[in-house]
Amino acid sequence: MLPVSFIPANLIGFAIAKYVSGAESGVPGRTKSLRFNIKSYTVHLHHWFLCLVMIGVLAYQGIYNSIVFGLLSGGSLQGLTYRDFYKLIYKKKTNNKIFSPKEPIGRI
User: Residue 89: CB partners within 8 Å, gap ≥ 6?
Assistant: First the structure.
């Protein structure tokens, strides 16, 4: 049975994640996304994924705290509400324009 503190912590975690994240997929939030590039791919570590990893690490270490687990699971659940929650690795968008001046360079 879940401790009583888990459910309020879950709701608070959901609310915090909602506050700091973007309003919808592709809209920047109050905090920057954790993204990095590997060759022609972008790896986007979504907050729901990071929360699940932290839950796994804490459980593996034998650390069980219903408030921490509630906060992290609330953050994970909120992240799963986005349309692009499953896109962790995707191909980089390429811009084929090498040079595109607004005005021609040098007039004759």
Answer: 41, 42, 43, 44
pLDDT tens for 59-74 read 999 999 999 999 999 9
Domain ranges of the chain: 6-91
Q: Give the burial class of 16: count Cβ atoms within 10 A of its Cβ; 0-12 exposed, 13-18 middle, 19 or more buried.
A: middle
Q: Residue 13's closest CA among 67, 72, 83?
A: 72
Question: What's the rounded Cα separation, in Å, for the pair 28 and 63?
Answer: 33
Helices (H) and strands (E) in the chain, counts: 3, 3
Rounded to an integer, what distance in angstroms lies between the CA atom of residue 70 and that of residue 26? Answer: 26
**Distance spanning both ends of the chain, measured CA to CA:** 82
Between CA 47 and CA 80 the distance in angstroms is 9
What pTM was estimated for this model as a whole?
0.74
